[in-house]
Amino acid sequence: MKKFYKIVYGIILFCLGFVLISDGMERYEGVQSMKTLRPCPSSPNCVSSQAEDPQHHMEPIPYAGSRDQAQAKLRTILQIMPRSQIMKDEPGYLDVYFRSRIFGFVDELEFLFDERNGLIHFRSGAHTGYYDFGVNRSRMRLIAEAFNAAK
Length: 151
What we know:
Shape: globular
Distance between the termini: 65 Å
CATH class: Alpha Beta
CATH superfamily: Kinase associated domain 1, KA1
CATH topology: TATA-Binding Protein
Helix content: 25-40%
Radius of gyration: 18 Å
Order of helices and strands: HEEHEEEEH
Structural class: alpha+beta
Largest sheet: 6 strands, antiparallel
């Protein structure tokens, strides 16, 4: 009888894991216009350069030169990052998925290029869960540092 319960428990855990992972496969369109990204939810697993509250806010990434040059530079950085996949690449907009190493949870990063002010606005948020243990903020710091260091 104990073996039966272990099997049932294993099946339940497997199904729960599958649901959590497949839930991250949903596609969220975040651009509300070519000027604003979708706002972060109240959960702490999201950061955005357009958020007004300190819990979610990060500064946008400044760039010099043309939008196309900045977008190409950012695209190159994103392509070499592990577990990244560019989902949409349009003039002035990038949508990128990152998957966590172990469970495959999806974080979506969106970049919106503000040509007028020479800024890259972004939103980085988890598709599932509540806490992200600062992963989105850390990843965006790393991307901003790599962008500023690249020539």
